[in-house]
Every structure is written in structure tokens, then in C-alpha cells.
Amino acid sequence: MAARVRRAGSGGATDEASERIPLTSPGPRSSDPVVRWKREARSRVLLAFAFASMAGCLFGYDIGSTASVVTADQALADFDIRGNSWQQGALVSCSLYGALASSLLLFALGEVIGRRQEILVANAMYVLGSLGSVLPPAHTSYGVGVIIASRFAYGTGIGLTMHSAPAYIAETAPSDLRGLLIAMKEAAIVLGILLGYLAGSVFSYPGGWRVIWGSASLLAVVSFAGMVNQPESPRWLAGRDVARAGESLRHFRAGEDPEEELEGIVQAAKASSSSQTVSGKLAQVWEVRRAFFIGGGLLMLQQVSGQPAVLYFAPTIFQNAGLGAQSSKVASVLVGVVKLLSTVVASLKVDSFGRVPLLLCGVGLMFASLAALSLTTWLWTAQEGSRLVIFELMALVTAYQIGFGPISWLILTEVCPLRVRGNMVGLGVSVNFAFNVLAAQTLPVLTTALGMPGLFALYASVCLLSLAFIKAVVPETKGRTLEEIEDLLGLGTRDEPGAP
């Protein structure tokens, strides 16, 4: 493409030059419209990702902060709760019960309010739950009840976030960024864990747990304010308002022509049927049970592998391994740093190595780390083995972030057909939180019953089962569009009502 150059003459008139110059040069320039469009599109996608992932960060913050709050020198002391008890497990898991309840509700409601609105409601619940948790006076008969109710409210925000944020990110990102951004959502959760551990270390004075839990409201307000100005997911809108879906998609693709992509989204949305009953939704999931078996199975195994539950009790585990109260919190911060770094590296490589190789590598290393932890806590006394336990827990969280951490949610969102994605993600989140509750609630009791060697050996056996599951049933989805993945699993749109 070329343009004529007009030059100013001596009398102020312009003369049209006979020569033509190209509008573009062989290499990309900042003035090239295509380059500008791509940069603008990426910046819009990344901005939406940032605000959506903040809500996920607050899930991680709950993990890290709670690990520091439910120690003998913080909330347990203020409310006379014994360590390694069922009551300690209940205080940890009450937010997970809230997450489970909201995820079950979302499965029943499906896609009623949209991804963006879910994130907004989640942030509102975060503010309510975090502020309510710090209000009750110490050593009162009603104090623990108020905390449990507030943590339950906070947990409903977690359930909303884990249902909506992965879907929102997947449905707004282009295919070349989708895997990276969904995996980086996991990095946001891990950043929250690290921030929670840091808060526990900084505010370690008596009563500091109120500042630790209350601080979550600040980030929730920022996430809420950012999401207010973001468009709804174009894939969610496609089955409801095609014109608005086009506007949303054009926003995220900037100057690029998204008509072909929009047509594919709309065609897939036409096949979706919004069942109004839970039984109807279960029937829909049953139709695509292979996809749910893959995604839901990974989420179940992810939780009972032990690593998520260990994070809630990291300072307590370090104290049991021979470290002092403050040293255990510093060690937890180090674990959080290692976990974050490994998450970022895994996120950057998720589209290079593929999903299945990273899963196999990560879970295999988890097995080795848990086996080493079992041997260390069995063969050495607490003081002698404390340094090894720190190293082995760092290896465990690194291995988790290579495989289960970023890949499980990515696989779930990728294998879910659009026509039942809301139902499947909702049910998958419920499965995830149900087993998360089980793991967190029982860890103190299992530690007392089996001892730390037996506990880690139990988790190692789960990792062996996970390796067999991944090898047998999990497909490679790297580099495929969401529609191509449906075809790969035989879950594409049926042309005829009676087609198999």
C-alpha cells in the first residue's frame, strides 16, 4: 500500500510529488496500525486479567493469613482453642465451607448473572467477611461464632471467584495468551499466599491477627473498582445478546476484525441449553461426563495430594519440626517465595511443554518430596530434621506449582464445552472445595492419629494414584482452540437432536 506525498510550494501551494512511498516498512514499527492494534488488544486483555486475578489473590491471602492466625500466639490464644484439634481445623476450614456452599449454589444457578458480576459480588463478600472477622472481642462466648460466620461469608467470595475468574480470563483472552493467563491466575493466588505469610510475620505481636485478616478488604476494594469498568465476557454474552457480545469481543481484540471468531462463539452458544433445574444440569454434565471426569478428577486429586492443606498449617508444621514460633513464620514466607517463583516459571512454560508433561513432572516430584518428608520426620528428631523439613516442603510446593497448581484449572476450563461450561465449572469448583474442606478439616486430627511420618506417607500414596490417572485419561490440549478441544473429546455441537 502506498500514499502520495504532497509538498509545499514556494507560494504556499502544494505540489503532488510523483513518487510514492510505502506506508509500512519491512519490520514492525510503533506507527504500524496492526502493531498498535495488537498492543492495544493485549493491554486491554491484561488489564481485565489483572483485576479479575486480584479476586483470586484474595483466595491465596486467606490461605497464607489463616496459617498465621490459627497459631498458639494469635487467635487460638485469644479464644482458648487448643492446637492440633478438631476446633483448629474448623476455624481453618470455615471459609472453605463458605466456598463450597457458594459453588454449589452457582451450580444450581449456572450462568444467571455473568462472570463479571460474579467477581463484583465476590469482592463485596470479601470486604464483609474480612471486616467481620476482626470485630469480636477476645475470650467472649460469642466471639468464635462471629468469626466463623464472617469467614464463611469470605468463603462465599472464594467460591464465586473460583467459578468466574478462570472462565472470564479464558473467554476474554486470545488463544495465544489463554494458557499463560489462566496459569498466571494461579500465580496471583500464590502471590496472595505469600502476602498472607508476610502479613503473619510482620504483624506477629499479640492481637496482630486482626490486622492480618482485616487487610484483605483493601485489595477487594481495588479489584471491585477495576472490574466495574470491564466488559462482560463475550462468550457469556453470545447466547444472550449477540450485539453486546460483538462489542465486548471488539473491545478485547481492539482494531482486529473479530467477526470470524465471533461467529464461532455464537454458533457454539446456540447449542447451549440453559436447564432450569439441578437435575437438568446434572443431565447436561452427564452428557459430557468424560470431560468432567478429566477436569473434576484432577481437582479432586489436587486437594487430597496434601500440599493445599499443608499450606494452611505451614507454621504449625514447622513448629512441630523444631522451629520457634517466629522462625516458623519466616520459614513459611520462604516457602511462599519459592512457591511464587515456581508458579511464574511454570506459567511461562505451560504453552511450551504442554499440559500433560508438566502434570507428570510436577506430581512425580511431589511424590518424591512427600516420601522424603515421611522419612525425615520418622528417622530424625524434630530439632535434627527441621532444616530438611524446610527444604522438602519447598520442594513440595515447587512440584505442585509445576503440575497440579496451574494445570488443573486450565484443563478444566479447556475441556468444558461452551454449552455446559458454567455448569461444569460450578460443579468442578464444588468438587475442589469439598475435598479441600476434607483435607483442611482432617489434617490436625490425622497428624495426631498417624503422626507426621504417616501423614506424609498417606499423601505420597495419593500422588502415585494421581500419576496413573494423568497417564491414563488426561489429553494434551496445548495449542488447540476451545472448539477444537471439544472435537478432540467428541463433545462438539451435535447437528441433529437425535445424533449420538
UniProtKB/TrEMBL annotation:
<dbReference type="GO" id="GO:0016020">
    <property type="term" value="C:membrane"/>
</dbReference>
<keyword id="KW-0762">Sugar transport</keyword>
<keyword id="KW-0472">Membrane</keyword>
<keyword id="KW-1133">Transmembrane helix</keyword>
<feature type="transmembrane region" description="Helical">
    <location>
        <begin position="90"/>
        <end position="109"/>
    </location>
</feature>
<feature type="transmembrane region" description="Helical">
    <location>
        <begin position="358"/>
        <end position="381"/>
    </location>
</feature>
<feature type="transmembrane region" description="Helical">
    <location>
        <begin position="211"/>
        <end position="228"/>
    </location>
</feature>
<feature type="transmembrane region" description="Helical">
    <location>
        <begin position="455"/>
        <end position="474"/>
    </location>
</feature>
<feature type="transmembrane region" description="Helical">
    <location>
        <begin position="45"/>
        <end position="70"/>
    </location>
</feature>
<dbReference type="InterPro" id="IPR036259">
    <property type="entry name" value="MFS_trans_sf"/>
</dbReference>
<dbReference type="GO" id="GO:1904659">
    <property type="term" value="P:D-glucose transmembrane transport"/>
</dbReference>
<dbReference type="GO" id="GO:0022857">
    <property type="term" value="F:transmembrane transporter activity"/>
</dbReference>
<feature type="transmembrane region" description="Helical">
    <location>
        <begin position="424"/>
        <end position="443"/>
    </location>
</feature>
<dbReference type="InterPro" id="IPR005828">
    <property type="entry name" value="MFS_sugar_transport-like"/>
</dbReference>
<keyword id="KW-0813">Transport</keyword>
<protein>
    <submittedName>
        <fullName>MFS sugar transporter</fullName>
    </submittedName>
</protein>
<feature type="transmembrane region" description="Helical">
    <location>
        <begin position="393"/>
        <end position="412"/>
    </location>
</feature>
<dbReference type="InterPro" id="IPR020846">
    <property type="entry name" value="MFS_dom"/>
</dbReference>
<feature type="region of interest" description="Disordered">
    <location>
        <begin position="1"/>
        <end position="34"/>
    </location>
</feature>
<feature type="transmembrane region" description="Helical">
    <location>
        <begin position="187"/>
        <end position="205"/>
    </location>
</feature>
<dbReference type="InterPro" id="IPR003663">
    <property type="entry name" value="Sugar/inositol_transpt"/>
</dbReference>
<dbReference type="Pfam" id="PF00083">
    <property type="entry name" value="Sugar_tr"/>
</dbReference>
<dbReference type="InterPro" id="IPR050820">
    <property type="entry name" value="MFS_Sugar_Transporter"/>
</dbReference>
<comment type="similarity">
    <text>Belongs to the major facilitator superfamily. Sugar transporter (TC 2.A.1.1) family.</text>
</comment>
<feature type="domain" description="Major facilitator superfamily (MFS) profile">
    <location>
        <begin position="48"/>
        <end position="478"/>
    </location>
</feature>
<keyword id="KW-0812">Transmembrane</keyword>
